Amino acid sequence: MRRGRAGVSALAACAAILAGAAAGAGTGAGALFLGSPAASAAPSKAGGPQCKPSLLAAHKGAVHITFWESMVTANGKTLQALTNAFNASQHKVQVTLVQQRSYTTTWIKYQAGLSNGQLPSVVQLTSTDLQGVADSHSVTPVQSCMKAAHYRTSDFIPRVLAAYKLDGVEVGMPFAVSGPVLFYNQLAFQKDGIASPPVTLGQFVHDAAILKAHGSGVGLKLDPWHLETWLATAGKLFVNHANGRKGRATAAVFDTPVAKRIWTDLDTMVRSGDATTNPATGTAEYDNLLGIGSGKYAMTIDTTAVLGTVEAVLATGQYPNVKLGVAPFPVYSTKVRGGIEVGGSALYISNRQSPVDRAAAWDYIAFLDSTKSQAAWAKGTGYIPIRKSSAKTAAVKALWSAEPGYKVAYEQLVQGANNDATAGAVIGPYTQVRTAELDAEESMFQSGVSPSAALAHATAQVDQILTQYDQRIGS
Questions:
Q1: Which of 143, 154, 192, 312 gives a 20 to 30 Å CA spacing to 208?
Q2: Which fold is adopted by the domain 55-178+342-419?
Q3: Rounded Cα–Cα distance for residues 376 and 78 (Å)
Q4: Which residues are CB-neighbours of 471 under 8 A, at least 6 positions away?
């Protein structure tokens, strides 16, 4: 990257654009949980009034519904275009988008609406909000709509559907799906004699040392999501009761030899100087990506949701020393058949609305998840098409031909095992849990705490957080 005023200005612009993109990125960062949304004891899965799509046909006049969405920048424009197309395609349902700017903002406002009655017909929430949504007893599971409408799901990527199931019930409808990938500078790899990107965590550590010896290294974002993803690639659970999918999660189960290996490898990279960390939030959250452009780093791990923005910035031509490569997330081991967890968000139908409003909400959601819409969504945003038929459309094929990096995340989700580990954990107080993970991880890097001791402390903290959460909601 060229230095001087132009380079600094470009970096600042990149950071600003990335910050906007990430507000709807779906990195799985988790939203706040503010106390108990329900006074009564809360089961794991959502309940409430059932879905009756047939009511829409019998209804006279148009049904007007609102959708609280969490997309910004180009993603928001693509969603608006899809909604405009839906509204123009028929006269039974008219949808108004209400932009909330981020998943955290949407979740906080939704929880407030549980008390003041101001709730939308459809809400978009991140994957880590699933248990909180279920505990609020405020949504009609989309499984009810699927059953009533004889809706087929065989075309969907199985792991994407599994991500939003509790006790076998599809609570939310997956929509904006992303995943972690490896970003690397192909020119730096070639210069340093690395023939191909690392496939495993062990190779990731090995290559980091080579890159650092030649003057670059790894940008490592401090995101607890990575531990959970590496565990999933090893087929290991994060919490008990089948990762919280067959009963409420009450205890952490991640303090295992596999987790010790993961944190030992990361600790080795950081303490040797082969990797430099940056926070996952705040003004420095994109230092790992910006470091690729400046030449400080040659590889990093981040969400595919920022890929479009990164490539747009590189296309300006201001960074001639960077040739972006995108590779699969380096798995724990090729000897273990695990898989990448699903990131992103789902759409939920409020059960506080009238039956015909719920029917209208389902009609709109079914449109957004149709083959054509998912293809347009993937092309316009870089999110992963969640239907196999969408991946076969001319629009997506053209996108992947021009930008092969977009295909990497899709292939990750259709490959590997589909089980409770790869579906991801379901936890109510997810933000607090990930804070405990992060604190333990930082204690290794900054205070010299051993990986074993850090994991033991994180486990004890997570157990306490889960217990307090269950006591707070009365289950």
A1: 312
A2: D-Maltodextrin-Binding Protein; domain 2 (3.40.190)
A3: 8
A4: none
Query: What contacts 24+ positions apart, CB below 8 Å, involve 370-377?
Result: 371/155, 373/82, 376/78, 376/81, 376/82, 377/78, 377/79, 377/82, 377/175, 377/176
Confirm if 80 and 383 have CB atoms less than 8 A apart: no
Domain spanning 179-340+423-473: CATH 3.40.190.10 = yes
Q: Name the helix (H) or strand (E) containing 180.
A: strand 180-185
List, for residues 242-294, the tens digit of each pLDDT value: 999 999 999 999 999 999 999 999 999 999 999 999 998 889 999 999 999 99
User: Do 55-178+342-419 and 179-340+423-473 share a fold?
Assistant: yes
324-328 and 180-185 strand pairing: antiparallel
Q: Hey, CA dihedral for 32, 289, 340, 224, is it positive or negative?
A: negative
Q: Model's pTM, two decimal places?
A: 0.89
Element (DSSP H or E) covering residue 303:
strand 299-303
